[in-house]
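Weekly structure sync, notes
Attendees: PL, DS, HV (note-taker this week)

Item 1: Peroxidase-related enzyme
DS walked through the input record. Source organism listed as Mucilaginibacter sabulilitoris. Sequence as pasted into the shared doc:
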Amino acid sequence: MPRIQALEPEEVPVDSKPTLDAFAKNLGFTPNMLATFARSPIAFNAWATMRNSLNRTLDLKTRELISLAVSEVNGCNYCLAVHSYAANKAKLPVEEIVLARKGHASDPKRDAAVQFARKIIEARGQVSDADVEAVREAGYTDANVIEIVTLVAVYSLTNFFNNVIDPVKDYPAVAPAGSI
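Item 1 (cont.): predicted structure, written out as tokens:
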């Protein structure tokens, strides 16, 4: 049972409504996580602005693979379900989704980004010079390195939010990490 309940449509604060409505229109429904996050217009809109800005960095498949690696480390079953669903819609095969949850990707360039993202979250940002150099050598710019760090932070924010709140799941559940 959620620790904080999702809002009903008539309960959504006026300052959260435009953002929540945009997500609902794009997704075709209002996920429970978003209907709960909207309780705080300040936090919700800040997160949404950052998330939407980051949609312009890297490519969708790389972002989804990074989200899976980060969500796996953070143990967020809600986000693993959401991002597994999104990765599937982005035409990533199941094997690639499983690989991302283990901190890798089949494409060498994406693999460098996913491994770097996983190192960031596991080491709480205390990565080595060699870690940064490896992602650069894979073809990422310094701006991309910064964007990967920011993606890790944004995905961790939603991981922490969902781990604390425990919203009702509205995406198909995924297998526990130990069974993949």
